[in-house]
Every structure is written in C-alpha cells, then in structure tokens.
Amino acid sequence: MKMDYSQIYLFYLLGLSIVLIIIMLLRNIKDKDEQIKRLRASISRLNNSLDQMDEQAKLIVRTDLELNKIQEELDKKISGLYTLQKLSRSFASTLDKKAIFNQIKPEHIEELGMQRALGFLWQEDKKRFLQTLAIGYNQEELNNIVSEITSNQNIYLKLIKRGKTISLRSADPKLISTQEIRRIFKVRAFCISPILPKEGNHGFLFVGTTSEEGPITEGDEELITILAHTIGQALENADLFEATWRAQQELERRVEQRTRELTRAVEELKRVSKRKSDFVSAVSHELRTPLTSIKGYASILLSKSLGEIPLPIQERLKKINRHSDELVHMINDLLDISRLESGRTTLKRQPHNLKELVDSIIDLLSMQIKNKSLTLSVDIPPDIKVLVDRSQVERVFVNLIGNAIKFTPEKGTICLRAKLINDSVQVDVIDTGIGIPKEARETIFEEFYRVDNPINEKVKGTGLGLSLVKNIIEVHRGRIWVESQLGVGSTFSFLLPTASHQE
Ligand code: ADP
User: Fold this and answer.
1) How confident is the model at residue 277, as a pLDDT?
2) Which protein residue's CA is at the shortest distance from atom 20 of ligand 1?
3) What is the pLDDT of residue 502?
4) Structural domain that includes position 380
5) Longest dimension (CA), the chain
6) Which among 76, 77, 91 has a CA at the least distance from the CA of 229?
7) Could you give the CA distance from residue 182 to residue 155 in angstroms, rounded to a whole number?
8) pLDDT value at position 3?
9) CA angle in degrees (0–180, nearest 5) for 142-108-92
10) What are the pLDDT digits (tens) for 370-400?
11) Which parts of the chain have pLDDT scores under 70?
12) 464 C-alpha vs ligand 1 centroid, how far in Å?
C-alpha cells in the first residue's frame, strides 16, 4: 500500500505529538518527584520537632512535679517553723522544768507532720531516764517503751552523746537498727534528737509517724533538731532560774537572820548605852555634890576668913581648886554627852549667821592663837545661816579650834572654811599639826580616847571633847569625819543644817 504525502505528514505529526506528550509527561513526573522529596523532608523535620516537643513536654511535667514536691516541702517547713516559734515562745514563759514538756501538745506534733512524740531526761542521781513527754501512745504502749528504754539505757545514752539527730535516713545499725526502733516505738518513720543543755539533765526527743505517706525528709530532721535544741535551752534557762531563785531565797533567809541578829544587837546596845548613860549621869551627880563642897572649903580657906594659912598650904589649896574646876568641867562634859546620847537634850534651834558665830569663838581663843604665833585664816561666806542650837555649836567650834591650836606646833597655820552642799553647810577645820595615826581616826571620837603622842603627854586633856562634838553634830542630824596625815596636819569636817532647811 502506498501512502500519500498527506498521510505521511499526518503520521509524522501524530508521532511528534506523541513524543511531545511523552516529554511533557516525563517532565511532570520529575516535578512531582521533587515535590514528593520536599514533602518527605518536611515530614521528617516535623517528626523531629514533634519528638523534641514531646521531650520538652516530659521535662515540663517532671519539673512541675519536682516544683510541687519542693513547694510541699517548703509549706511543711514553714508550718513546722511556725509551730516551733509558737513552742519556743511558750517555753520562754516557762521557768519550771516540769512544765516545759507540758507545753508540747498533740496538735504541735501534728503540725510537724507526725503523730507520736516522747521525751526522756536522764537523771544522774537516780541513773535512769525519766519520761517527760508522751503523745499518741496508750498507757500499755508507753509502759512497754519505758521498760525497753530502761533495760537498754546505754544505747540511748550513746545516742545522746553523739549529739546528732537520727532518722530512717541516718540511723546507725551498729548501735540500734531502724527496724528495732520502729518496733519499739511503733512507728513507720521517726526522728530521735538529743536534748543537750550545757549543764544539767541530758535527754532525747523522739518524734514518729504511723502514716504511710512519705518518709522523714531532711527538713523534718532539721525541725526536730531545732525543737530538741529549743527544749535544751528552755531547760537550761529553768535551771538558771532555779539556781538564781534558790540563791535569792538563801540570801533573803540570811538577810532576815542577820536583820534579826542586828535588831537584837541594836536593842542590846540601846540597853547597854542607856545603862551607861544612867550610870554616868548618876555618878556625875553624886560626884558633883562632894566636889562642890571640896571647892567651897578650899575657897573658904583661901579667903583667909578662918585665919592666915602658910604659903605652901595656900599653893596646895590653889591646886585643889584648879583640879576641882577641871573635875567639874569633866563631869559637866560627861553629863552633857550622856544627855545628848539619850536624847534628853532639848535643842534651841534658831537661824544664826555662821561667820559671826565663828568670829565670836575666834575672839575667845585669840590669845592662845597669838601665844603660839599661829596664822589663822577664815574663809566663810558672810551670808550662810545655820539652823542650830547656838550654845551647843559654839562648843563644837571651841573644841575643834582648841584642838587645832593644841596639836599644831608654833608658827603653824589653822584655816576655817565653809561651803554650801544642798541643804547643809560643810565646815572644815584645817591645821598643820602633828596629825592623827590612821588606826585612831575613828576611835578619837569615842569617850576618853587620846592618842599616845608627845603633846598629850605634856598637855592635860580628858578625851571627851571630840565625843561631845560628835554627839552635838549628830543631834543636829549632821556628820563629822577627819582626814589626816601624820606630821602634815589634820582636817576635821562636819555638816550642819542651813537655815533654809526646815524640818
Ligand atoms: P583631848 O583633846 O582632851 O585629848 P579630844 O576628844 O578633843 O580630847 O581629842 C581626842 C584625841 O584626838 C586627842 O587626845 C588627840 O590625840 C586627837 N586629836 C584631836 N584633835 C586633833 C588635832 N587637831 N590634831 C591631832 N590630834 C588631834
């Protein structure tokens, strides 16, 4: 068969179209292939991301769980600390050792997440443990525990000695196994913490839980350790308080006893002093009458009204007269002292200008001052008024200035000084005399006491002057004292009430 050109051409065209279609199809297939490849890559990337996201989700869940646990722990710890704070406050207000453990109540132990608690203190004198706290046990359980502890007390003493809290986490099986503790104390988990006051009783605090939830954590251990420590401190405070209280009681007892003794002594002293005053005053009165007669007879004889008397007898009569005068003077002083001491002297207190009063005494003694060529200086403000019995206070100045003159060697100095101190005036009588030995500075104010010194050997004296002075000042509610240095001088100082001071 013969094909014409048009057929050939058509055939050719058909062939070309088929080729073109095939080429296009191939191209399309290639594009799809690439698209599939890209899609596959995307899917794999997506898968990776999904895996990662899954990991992250797991991590987040884990972290969340852990955070929850930490939060729970923290909550437990905060509530535990709060309980401890409450307890330590009530311990602080308790100074009775027995009452300290009574402050711990079941709700406190509950707040610490436990149900059972026990306290034991070691009694050194009885060599055994004393049970001081029991929460969550019936009597029978308690008896069993106490007898277990009593028969194994060495183990518990060793636990205390170690000074560390033990729990399920930290028990030492060599000493006592956790199973054993759980059996004895009938708990699932526990903490035993030593109570260690610096002095006094040592003991331990046991806290345990019967519940199955969660073991004892580090936080629980810390809380129980703090509680035991706080109990230890409270016990120590109670011990200290007891010791102080005992010491105070003892002191009070001694003070009371001493006061009683002193009161008795004062009473006795008053009685003796009154007897002495009565005696002195009786003897003085008795002496005065014969003395007056002696003096009278001597005067009559000396007046020659009974006839001439030979000169040597006259001399002796004069001596009798002089000695009688001295004796009368002494008896008067003694009588005055006894009156002042027994409060029989009535003071005529009036305001007097101190400077004028002193000047009048100086006038009286000026000859003696001149005879010994003494320098006298007076430093008394002109406006000071004293509320005193003038005649009595004059005797104070006469005696003190008289002594200053007597015990100051020639050409020495005497100074009189006064200054106001609150409602009183302090007067100082200062001399540059022989001074007074330290041991005599108190005794010179006693009756008849005279220091052994060359002046006293030569010059007569009664040893009554300063006693009289002291009594006069004291009835004016004043005080007298002396400062002195041997060979340098003495300062007699005394206080008198000023006129502004009304009683
Ligand atoms: P009297 O002067 O009569 O001895 P007093 O009672 O006045 O008695 O004094 C007692 C003693 O105190 C004196 O004997 C003397 O030893 C001592 N005394 C008193 N005043 C002074 C003084 N200013 N300086 C040194 N000694 C003194």
Assistant:
1) 79
2) 403
3) 46
4) 348-497
5) 229
6) 91
7) 15
8) 65
9) 105
10) 999 999 999 999 999 999 999 999 999 999 9
11) 1-3, 199-200, 213-214, 501-503
12) 9
Regarding whether 240 and 96 lie in a shared domain, the answer is: yes
Nearest residue (by CA) to ligand 1, atom 1, is: 463
Q: Cα of 451 to ligand 1 centre, how many Å?
A: 7
Note whether residue 31 is domain-resident: no
State whether residue 327 is helix, strand or coil: helix
Of 246, 281, 313, at which residue does a domain stop?
246
Domain with 364 in it: what CATH number?
Answer: 3.30.565.10
The residue behind tokens 């014969």 is: 290
CA of 463 to the centre of ligand 1 (A): 7
Ligand 1 centroid–CA 403 distance in Å is 6
Listed residue (290, 490, 351, 299) closest to 407, CA to CA: 490
Same domain, residue pair 355 and 230: no
Is the CB of residue 224 less than 8 Å from the CB of residue 189?
A: no
Going from the Cα of 280 to the center of ligand 1, the distance in angstroms, rounded, reads: 22
Query: What is the value of pTM for the model shown?
Result: 0.53
Q: Exposed/middle/buried for 104, CB within 10 Å: 0-12, 13-18, 19+?
A: buried
Residue nearest to atom 12 of ligand 1 (CA): 444
From 199, 218, 246, the end of a domain falls on 246
Task: Specify the number of domains making up the chain.
Answer: 2
Output the CA 461–ligand 1 centroid distance in Å: 8
Q: What is the pLDDT of residue 213?
A: 65
**41 lies in some domain:** no
Question: Whose C-alpha lies nearest to ligand 1, atom 19?
Answer: 403
- Domain with 119 in it: what CATH number? 3.30.450.40
Give residue ranges with CB within 6 A of ligand 1.
399, 403-404, 407, 431, 433-434, 436, 444, 449-451, 453, 456, 461-467, 490
Whose alpha carbon is nearest atom 7 of ligand 1? 465
